[in-house]
What does this fold into?
Amino acid sequence: MKNMGLCRCVFLVFLSILIMPSVSFSDEPETENQNHWYSGIILDIGVTASQVDLEVDKYEDGSKVSGGTLSTDISYAPFITAGSKYRYLGSTKFGYNIQITFSGFRVDKQDLGGDDLEDVGTSAKGYFVYALPVLFYNFGDKTFKAGKGKSLKFGIGVGLGYLEAKGDIILEDLDDGTQEKHKFDVSTDPVDLAAFVMMDIRYNKWLLQIRGGGPWIMNFDQDGYEFGLFDFSMSLAYSFHL
It folds into this structure.
């Protein structure tokens, strides 16, 4: 089921990339080299430094009865983002595009009510994928010709997310404070909600991006459990303009 869910997610991502470049409210004329389905796509490849929280909550009869959060100090992982051509609303600097992001994570510390995160032998690892439209405001150049230009964008995106995670966590009962270790091996089937806010700085073919958000998945694979991932990251990448 995990592979089937991921395949569906990849299909939706691919379909979004096919559709988005053909839709525009921009007053910018199309050029001859923009006729291909991949025209205007920006591929960013680099490294991300992130702080990740994976929250697991247990529900009974619709009410939360226990929960726990796995976290980590700053960790590093590959960063890959594909974005469709930037489209603008007329002559304004408000615009939008489709962004697809892949990144991995590992969390190995827990917040058990103290002042600091503790290493209690629990951990989880996995990866996540976003595919979502992003609405932004651009303080810089509206076009990148041959990958040259500079811009500062602030934006928000809401769309589809895929999360796969495996590990164990200590869940604390909300009533009496008792603790139990819970093992999990979960994935979305096929996709669920994801959202983020971001600041995007581009200088020619270099990207510096700060982003916070993540996929939130409810009641899949293991009934009665809810999983949410929040990723706060800073990424440095090199851009390939197709």
Residues 1-6, 14-37 have pLDDT under 50 and may be disordered. The two ends are 34 Å apart (CA to CA).
